[in-house]
Write a structure and sequence with these properties.
Elements (H helix, E strand, L loop, with lengths): L1 H8 L26 H6 L8 H4 L2 H15 L6 H4 L21 H4 L21 E7 L5 H8 L5 E10 L6 E9 L2 H11 L15 E4 L16
The structure holds one DNA strand of 6 nucleotides.
DNA sequence: AGCACA
C-alpha cells in the first residue's frame, strides 16, 4: 500500500527506469478471442462479453461433451439441426442409442446423464416450451438456468396476458442443438422452483414446442 | 391451460 500511495503522491514525474512490473500487457490483436462457433452462438451485444471469458479449455470441454453425447463434433452444428417440421413429424428422428458406445453413455457427467438412452417421444423437438415463469423475470435470468445444459443455444421470452386475471404471464422458448439435449434439460428442470420462497406459483413446466423452427444457424435452408 | 420467432 505504501507503494501505491507513493505512486499516487508523485504523479507529475515519471520514472525514467521501467518499473518491475510493466503495465502494457495488452496485445495488439486478441488471437484467441473465441472459437468460431462461439461467435455464431452469441450474436447479440449483451452477451458479447461472454466470449472474452471463455478459455480454450472450456471450449474444448464443451465440444467433448457434445461429442460424447452425439458422437458428432460440435463445430458442425449447422448440420445437426434440421427442419424437423418438414417430413419427420410423426416419428422420432433417429434411434439415440448406438450399438457400440453404450458403455460410454453411462459415465456422462453432469446434466447430460440419464436421458441419452431413453427413446424420445414422437413429438420431441429441439425447442422447449416453458411456462410457469414469474411475470417479472428477465431473459437474463432464464438464460442463467438453461445455459449450463449441453447444446443450449438461445432463449426467447414471450409476454402473454392471462385471460382470467389480467396478469401478465411469461412463456419462453429455449432452443437446443438436438432434441435429445432439449429432453435432458426438460427432465432436469421439470418442476424447478423459480422462487424458492413462493412454493405455490413459480415452478417451471416444460414441454416440447409444437413448431420448432428457430433458424438455429442462420436461415431455413440447412441442406448441405 | 397457455406456443413465438423467421
Amino acid at each position: 500500500m505504501a507503494d501505491a500511495y507513493w505512486r499516487y503522491a508523485d504523479p507529475r514525474q515519471q520514472a525514467p527506469m521501467a518499473p518491475p512490473q510493466p503495465a502494457p500487457l495488452k496485445r495488439p490483436r486478441p488471437d484467441y478471442g473465441g472459437a468460431p462457433e462461439t461467435l455464431g452462438y452469441y450474436p447479440r451485444e449483451d452477451e458479447r462479453t461472454v466470449h472474452l471469458s471463455i478459455k480454450d479449455t472450456e471450449a474444448i470441454n464443451a465440444s467433448y461433451d457434445r461429442y460424447l453425447q452425439n458422437g458428432i463434433p460440435s463445430y458442425s452444428t449447422a448440420e445437426l439441426v434440421r427442419p424437423v417440421g418438414g417430413g419427420l413429424n410423426g416419428r422420432p428422428v433417429e434411434d439415440p442409442r448406438l450399438p457400440g458406445i453404450g458403455g460410454m453413455d453411462n459415465r456422462i457427467i453432469g446434466y447430460s446423464g440419464g436421458r441419452t438412452e431413453a427413446p424420445l417421444p414422437p413429438d420431441a423437438s429441439n425447442t422447449l416450451f416453458v411456462e410457469g415463469l414469474p411475470a417479472n423475470c428477465t431473459r437474463r435470468e432464464v438464460s442463467h438456468i438453461f445455459r449450463p445444459f449441453i447444446g443450449f443455444q438461445e432463449v426467447r421470452l414471450v409476454n402473454k396476458d392471462s385471460r382470467h386475471h389480467g396478469d401478465l404471464l411469461v412463456l419462453c422458448f429455449v432452443d437446443f442443438a438436438t432434441a435429445n439435449q432439449a429432453a435432458t434439460a426438460m427432465d432436469a428442470l421439470q418442476g424447478y422452483q423459480f422462487d424458492e420462497h413462493d412454493r405455490d406459483s413459480a415452478y417451471l413446466r416444460l414441454q416440447f414446442a409444437r413448431f420448432p423452427g428457430p433458424r438455429p444457424s442462420g436461415g431455413p435452408r440447412n441442406r448441405r
